[in-house]
Amino acid sequence: MEALDLLEIEHWRPFAYIGLEHPFFNLNSETIIYTWIVLFIIMSFLIFFHFFLHKKESLVYSAVSLLIESFADFTEQTLDFFSFNHFSFIASLFVFIFMCNSLAIFPWLEEPTNDLNTPLSLGIISFMYVQWYAIKELGFFHYAREYFQPFFIMFPLHVIGKIATIISISFRLYGNIFGGYIISTLWFSLIKSSFFLEIAGLLTGNLVVIFFFGIFEGFLQAFVFSMLTLTYLSLALHEEESFQTHESSS
Amino acid sequence: MIELHHYIHYITVALAAGINAIGVGLGEGTTGSAALKAINTQPVATNDIIKTAVIGMAIVETAAILGFTVATLLIFDTHFAHPTAFSGIAEIGIGLAICLPGFFIGIVSALPAHYACVSLARQPFFGKNILRFMLISQALLQTPLIAGFIIAIAIKSQTTLGTTWYDSLRLLASGLCMGLGSIGPSLGLGIYARTACSMVGINRAVFGKLFSFTLLSQALIETSVIFSLVIALLIIFAHSTTMTQSIALLAAAVCTGLGTFGAGIGSGKTAAAACMQITTIPEEMPTISRMSMIAQGLMDTCAIYALIISIMLIFFH
């Protein structure tokens, strides 16, 4: 079998003419274009919904309000209090990742999440958000004291553990979406080989591949990602309470 | 003319996809049978049980998908069109790094789904929270698999550079370290997640306490996986210019891989016992969790000894 171009990435080098030719300054052109397409789709959905929000009895209004209410309930249950900042952050993470993962249901488009840079940057964003709010809620010294619990020697372990959350959260998303991308690419290259197979494939397998890997797996991974971020957030914010119960019991 | 390295190349591809598929198949089978038994005992909760079982199986499937991805990358990569004996040895490392974690995680990550179905049969009106608990414990449980995937990709990016026996043995050592090192923590995580998911069904009042305790304990059990990951990455980027140095790297790999075995299983069992205690005596939770964390920290010192010896072998041979 001849090799597929599964790993070939086209690069833009916008800074090359001023001498910056290091790979760090390259831009993956396809990823950026698909991310902009995702943002465009989300934007057009928002405008569409905004138009319908004036009609209180319409189907779109009730669907959107049901979705938002379930998300708000979900955030409140996990955090034990409602905060509009956290709710909007988690909901936008979920919507963006879900649209990224299921972009492949449109022909000629690929998921931006099958490039490692997207999941890794999302992971770093969620990590920074959680740490920022932990410092803001607990105060810097209290936050820093968590790193030396229960002994002083545990400091490197705590640091490694914190960094490992970024790696595990982003590689989980990347591995699943990349696997789905490879499977669907193989499937489409297989049915392209003959006319009969293409007809049969269009009728049966395409739907399965698109709906399993695009919608179901995309929904599940986006849910797991936002859910893990929310759980880390609630754990970081409730650190103080558990610490106080520790002290009062001893 | 077919030579030995062709056999090695294709057998590695088959192992990477096949052994993961065996583990995942066994795991999904137990989940399916548990779901059917749960429906039999509690027909009221049929919808919740089916939803939980399907989502659980989809997450277990990750092991098979990652193994498949690595196998496909090995087949279709143009650099492997003409494999040599050196790249063949390095490919065994890739196979070990993905198929050992994949097999064990495939079996073990089905346990939360299995016991979540059993709990749902006991607590039919607590479905949402049990589903959430299962999702979180499964997602955290799959960290060894993701570490193995990272190492497999990292080895694959280095195989084209390997043109000597020393380089290929170095890459094999890295895969061996990750593969061996993921077995013990996977089993420990599985023991813990099984107990936690069945305890939610016994006493639903302690759900909040068990949730935070689960996150802490699973993070503590996973530290030994992170040790193996660190050693595997250090081995990949170490310098080896003689045969002696490559053998020292192999010894370092085996040292950390076997050293984390007992620590992983032991701290998993400790956390599981603490979880049972919290279910029966919820008001004593601070004491129990502190005791369990100190015991787990002491067990991790065994893994830390192995880690120190491995680092000495890598840098001061």
Fold and architecture overview:
The complex is a heterodimer of chains A (250) and B (317). By secondary structure, chain A is mainly α. Chain A has 9 helices and 2 strands. In chain A, strands 1-2 form a two-stranded antiparallel sheet. In chain A, helix 2 packs across helix 3. By secondary structure, chain B is mainly alpha-helical. Helix content of chain B is 86%, strand content 0%. In chain B, helix 2 runs antiparallel to helix 4, helix 2 packs parallel to helix 6 and helix 8 runs antiparallel to helix 10. Chains A and B meet through helix 6, helix 8 and helix 9 of A and helix 2, helix 5, helix 6, helix 8 and helix 9 of B.
Shape of chain B: flat
Q: Work out the helix count of chain B.
A: 11
Q: Look at the structure and give the mean pLDDT of chain B.
A: 88
- Major sheet characteristics of chain A: 2 strands, antiparallel
Strand order of the largest sheet of chain A: 1-2
Portion of residues within helices of chain A: over 70%
The total beta strand count of chain B reads 0
Which stretches of chain B of 5+ consecutive residues score pLDDT under 50? none
Q: What order do the SSEs of chain A take from the amino end to the carboxyl end, as H and E? A: EEHHHHHHHHH
| Amount of beta strand of chain B | under 5%
Roughly what fraction of the amino acids of chain A lie in strands? Answer: under 5%
Write the layout of secondary structure elements.
The complex is a heterodimer of chains A (250) and B (317).
Chain A: E1 11-12, E2 27-28, H1 29-52, H2 59-79, H3 84-101, H4 117-138, H5 140-145, H6 155-191, H7 195-203, H8 205-237, H9 239-249
Antiparallel strand pairs in A: 1-2
Chain B: H1 4-41, H2 46-76, H3 85-108, H4 110-122, H5 127-141, H6 143-158, H7 165-202, H8 207-221, H9 223-236, H10 243-280, H11 285-315
